[in-house]
Amino acid sequence: MAKSCYEYAIWVIGKYPKTEKELRIKMYQQWYDSETVTRTLEKLKQDNFVNDELFAESYINSEVIRKGRPLLVITQKLEMRGIDKSIISKVVHDAWDEIDNWVLQWIEKEIKQYKKKWVDGFDIIQKLMRKWYRLGDIKRVIKGKEE
Questions:
Q1: Which pLDDT does position 1 carry in this prediction?
Q2: How many CB atoms lie within 10 A of CB 2?
């Protein structure tokens, strides 16, 4: 017996959280019709199983704060996953102080690792910028260490 669209969506979300766009694509790949997919997504949003804002908060927390990935790269990935720019900017704005603090800590950690490898000065800045860290943040960390 075939799963209902709602059951299929719950099964997919249970394996790994999805954005609304990703889930919509998955349901279309299973040949569910447009009206059924729309109704299912509305029900999932109503039950809070699909919430792009919570997804963005969680993703930014995981990737930027915990793993030290550059914010620019993560916001681009969220956009590719179908999250609206306004939602991303709201989430970033709400968590800016925490994000900023962690980004500076990650840059400082990277600098220490490069210095252990006898990399210094401008080479460190270049390497950090290639990892998508912003020059202003790098300078703030360097100036903070000099004081």
A1: 42
A2: 9
